[in-house]
Amino acid sequence: MTIRILLIDDHALFRSGVHALLQRQSDFEVVGEAADGLEGLKRAKQFRPDVILLDLNMPGLSGLETLKLLVQDVPQTVVVMLTVSEDLDELSLALREGACGYLLKSIEAETLASAIRKAAAGHPVIADDMTAKLVMSMRTPKPAPAPAPAADPLTTRERDIMRELAHGASNKEIARSLMLAESTVKIHVRNILRKLNLTSRVQVAIYAVGHDTARTTETT
Description:
CATH architecture of the largest domain: 3-Layer(aba) Sandwich
Protein name: Response regulator protein
Strand content: 5-15%
CATH superfamily of the largest domain: Response regulator
Domain Response regulatory: 4-120
Keywords: DNA-binding, Phosphoprotein, Transcription, Transcription regulation
CATH topology of the largest domain: Rossmann fold
Domain HTH luxR-type: 147-212
Number of domains: 2
Mean pLDDT: 87
Largest sheet: 6 strands, parallel
Order of helices and strands: EHEHEHEHEHEHHHHHH
GO molecular function, one term: DNA binding
């Protein structure tokens, strides 16, 4: 049986690479590609694929927003997230919204092919690294909350990035300064906005200044 696959990812080079890899499998057929969520939803309705590989972080309609619409409009199609994000919260959200799997873009070609076959058969597929993180997070006892006026929801890396945002740095400049991939910075910025319930980089900068975060590096 041929497994019909749709790719939704805003990076054209990555899409073409995955497309070429999957086409080497005799039981796979890549029926279409889309560069954003809205186009992906249109292609999904048009082609009714067996499996959709969906990026998590895309401009416009996000991966999670696209996932909700796909589950609603093409419920017979299996959706597997294929992303660089190793955030456990995003893994949990994706699974709760109806994703059948959560794979990382660092995956080997043979492992990806195997995961697609399992997903098409109705089996959940989660990256081994993410499964290990999930298990460890459940095993590790949570420390008692310290008597503080307010808990800081940000990680050390997210605070580093927030300080850079407070100084007006772009994603590219932050990536260069902290020696990170620009795509990783993009994910961290999105997480900062979500955790602080903010909607823009300007609000993050104001928050950082208001909480003296922007000066932390200079005074330590």
